[in-house]
Amino acid sequence: xxxSDYVKTLDREGRxxxxxxxRAGLDxxxxxxxxxxxxxxxxxxxxxxxxxAGYVLEGHLxxxxxxxxxxxxxxxxxxxxxxxxxxxxxALAGAPTDVQCWTFLPTAPPSxxxxxxxxxxxxxxxxxxDAEGALGGAFSPxxxxxxxxxxxxxxxxxxxxxxxxxRTEEPRTMRIRAADTGAVWTxxxxxxxxxxxxxxxxxxxxxxxxxxxxxxxALWNRQPLAGPEVxxxxxxxxLWIENAGI
Length: 246
Known about the structure:
With about 250 residues, the protein is of the alpha+beta class. It contains 7 helices and 5 strands, in the order αααααββββαβα.
């Protein structure tokens, strides 16, 4: 996916998040984020959008403090969220391709601009899913290629960091397979952070197979990582559920 694809997705997902939040009601509980209401979801995501836009617009080369959301409620909070989301979309769409700024995942796209466009598209999509969970309805579709990309970012980016808690005392292997796109990842577990490589590399202790969209939401712990999609040692799937939260 290129930057323009991510920006279009970010634009669509942010609008849908706001509309869904408004329908759900700002006091509704967010099942995927214990202790959160929709108000907290909007404040968090709105702050993330402003934080990300600051890197792209101002070219910060070091990590910056995370901004606090204002104590707004109701329609004012929704307006604040929509404003920050629109500003981020404009910042990414209008930024020079060679902009230099800080990024934070070990396996990043080829440029800082691509990194932030990708990261914010997925940040917003996952929190849109959270808003739909608060509403109580089915999740809106995620395009398969985008979902596959989100699984890749999670496995090779977030869980390649030292802070990942998905670890085993003895070496174990998980296979993640997107049935509709053909993407395959082999996740090597050990006392160290997970090491993920692309492809079907040798035997696996546990295999998880599903559509890219199902893998996207299940591996982000937005729906159960269980059922016929999981074969082999199911304790590894439970390990993921218990320890993979970002």
